[in-house]
Amino acid sequence: MNKEEFFLKSDIEEILDRIKDISDDFSGKTIILTGARGFLGRYFVEIFKQLNTKVEKPVKVIALDNFITSGTYGKQPIEDTNVKFVQHDVIRPFTTNEDVHFIIHAAGIASPQYYQKFPLETLEVAIIGTKNMLELAKQKKAKFIFFSSSEIYGDPDPKHIPTKEDYRGNVSSVGPRACYDESKRVGETLCYIFGQYFGIKTNIVRPFNFYGPGMQQNDFRVLPNFASEVKAGKSLKIYGQGNQTRTYCYITDALTGLFKVILRGIPGEAYNIGNAFPEISVMQLAQMIKHNIDQNITYEIIGYPDNYPTNDPSRRCPDISKAKMHFGYDSQVKLEDGLKRFFSWTNVNYSGEQ
Fold first, then answer.
1. How far, CA to CA in Å, does 262 sit from each of 105, 108, 338?
2. What is the DSSP letter of 4?
3. Residue 179 CB partners (closer than 8 Å, separation 6+)
4. Secondary structure tally for the chain: helices H, strands E
5. pLDDT tens string for the chain (354 positions)?
6. H/E element holding 254?
7. Are 73 and 214 spatial neighbours (Cβ–Cβ below 8 Å)?
8. For 18-76, what is the HEC assignment?
9. 3-state secondary structure at position 203
10. What is the DSSP letter of 235?
11. CA angle 31, 36, 208 (to 5 degrees)
């Protein structure tokens, strides 16, 4: 498998173009990236590799991953003299003799299917792993970026939708989702402590439903599920009544926002990164796929699988006004366009089996 199979070249070029006014700030810097072989981690590695053809001094990347959920895509070799891959589980301390300028802590287990399979590992990477990497940031005087989640908001009260960063959340500490939701909340608390008490420059990113080429077929979230069913010629399966709503953020908008947080985020701040609209139901998403991808697509409502975590948030929609105000972030890819790009990629790269 080559990189063309899990990226669209045009997407990589788009991201590079949208961060070209700030990317020189990485020149000559060393970055530690955790979760380097996950969905977002692979994009970061590729962008840094491409930046090294443009910046005056190369960006050095120390890429960490333990492969627990990286799958086939994650095991592809990294062929770049400025990217050093280390197979490492961040729940164990990591040391390096290199000067380090940024630590991007993107390691985590985000898919409900996987964090139910690995609940303790999910807790540990977001709590112990985050503390270990913050200790390293303290030692190296590096800026630290923590990948939290929109799940820390739980199921917001309707009056808090769109949801701002100061919303405190409606989250249960027990249940099948708690290992993910609560551990991310503790990770954020650790960032606050290291920022307030030790002067570490930290930022928290709360992603809202990122999607795009490179998502594994067995990711088990809604768009990979739908794409797998389209590829197999099967009906799209909609759980429950399909009334739960989300906004979806295409990968080029996601990475643009993430890079802006890394380089322009105000220390100590948390930022929602996602698409503010349209907020649509799963049923409407299936209808949009039928209209924009293939008129022959059918869909059916089924009960939730036995292994599906309960208490699925009924709505999820970010207020991204803080990111707009602080560093000019906005999403540009319309959902219809993003879906076409994603399904054109899955049509080639997903198998017909589920």
1. 11, 18, 24
2. G
3. 115, 119, 120, 122, 123
4. 11, 13
5. 455 578 999 999 999 999 999 999 999 999 999 999 999 999 999 999 999 999 999 999 999 999 887 666 666 667 789 999 999 999 999 999 999 999 999 999 988 878 888 999 999 999 999 999 999 999 999 999 999 999 999 999 999 999 999 999 999 999 989 999 999 999 999 999 999 999 999 999 999 999 999 999 988 899 999 999 999 999 999 988 889 999 999 999 999 999 999 999 999 999 999 999 999 999 999 999 999 998 899 999 988 777 676 678 899 999 999 999 999 999 999 999 999 999 999 999 998 765
6. helix 251-264
7. yes
8. HCCCCHHHHCCCEEEEECCCCHHHHHHHHHHHHHCCCCCCCCEEEEEECCCCCHHHHCC
9. strand
10. P
11. 100
Is the dihedral angle over the CA atoms 283, 286, 288, 294 positive or is it negative? negative
Q: Which residue has the tokens 């990629």?
A: 345
- List the catalytic residues: 180
What the block records as the tokens of 199 is 């002067």
Q: What is the residue-wise DSSP string for 262-303? A: HHHPPTT-EEEES-----EEHHHHHHHHHHHT-TT--EEEEP
How far apart (Å, rounded) are the C-alpha atoms in residues 266 and 32? 20
CA–CA distance, 57 with 72 (Å, rounded to integer) = 32
Q: 301 has which bridge partners?
A: 238
Listing DSSP states for 117-175 in one string gives: HSHHHHHHHHHHHHHHHHHHHHHHT-EEEEE--GGGGBS--GGG-SBPTT---B--SSS
Taking the C-alpha atoms of residue 201 and residue 266, their distance in angstroms, rounded to an integer, is: 8
170 beta partners: 154
Rounded CA-CA distance 149/1 in Å is: 30
- Give the span between the Cα atoms of 199 and 193, in whole angstroms: 9
Q: For tokens 């990770």, what's the residue?
A: 187
pTM: 0.95
Pairing relationship of beta strands 143-147 and 245-246 according to DSSP bridges: unpaired
Side chain identity at residue 213, one-letter code: P
Using the structure block, give the residue that is written with the tokens 């948390």: 270
Q: Which amino acid is at 284?
A: Q
